[in-house]
Amino acid sequence: MSNIQNWQIFVISFTSIIAYHLISKFIYIRRQLREEQKMGDVRKLFGTDAKKEQEGVWHDLGDGIRVRIARIGNPNYQKRFQAISKPHRRAIRRGTLNEEIAEQLLVQCLSETIVLDWEGIELDDVTVPYSTENAIKILTDYKDLREYINDIANEMEGYREADNDEAVENLKK
Predict the structure, then answer these.
(1) CB 66 within 8 A of CB 118
(2) Predicted pLDDT of residue 127
(3) Cα-based distances in Å from 88 to 4, 107, 172
(4) Highest mean pLDDT out of 2-16, 17-31, 106-120
(5) Range list of β-strands (E), the chain
(6) Which residue, of 28, 62, 93, 145, has the greatest Cβ tally within 10 A?
(7) Which residues have CB under 8 Å from 32's CB, separation 6+?
(8) How far apart are CA 158 and CA 87, in angstroms?
């Protein structure tokens, strides 16, 4: 073998040794970091208060309007939705339910189980007291309000357990 070939073999061997050392060091550091990382507590991140979900939480909608909104999917909602949708199950399964009927079912279920109370709602400068019937009328006539309430009722943030507030703040940082 010539000196050049020996030199090439030496360089290749030396490079392989360095690469092996660097890879080993990388794996060691990665393992240390993984062990040092704290695992996320699912309850702290995603735990909600079943009482708040069912009894509702007051939300300020602006202009002095406050609405007590329960969470979509609470037991009252599920039970009521099953009852009012029963006559329409075949159409729901087939995907042939008329949009107008679907909207009526949603409004009725929201009005009876999700919108639980309100303050400050007026229509033409007349205070509208809370009742299921008034909620049906308002949610039918004001689609954007209905969608806004529906969005609030779907979000877990408003229904978190009280001791999860710190976890939520940490997520925002």
Answers:
(1) yes
(2) 97
(3) 86, 15, 43
(4) 106-120
(5) 57-62, 65-69, 115-119, 122-123, 126-127
(6) 145
(7) none
(8) 33
Inter-residue contact 57 to 116 (CB < 8 Å) = no
* Cα 64 to Cα 58, 86, 87, 125, distances in angstroms: 12, 38, 39, 13
**111 close to 139: Cβ distance less than 8 angstroms:** yes
The residues that bridge with 118 in the sheet, in sequence order, are 67
Is there a contact between 102 and 127 (Cβ–Cβ < 8 Å)?
Answer: no
Tokens of 36: 């040092």
**Burial category of 134 from C-beta neighbours within 10 Å (exposed 0-12, middle 13-18, buried 19 and up):** middle
Distance CA 71, CA 151 (A): 10
pTM: predicted TM-score of the whole model, two decimal places: 0.70
Residue 22, helix vs strand vs coil = helix
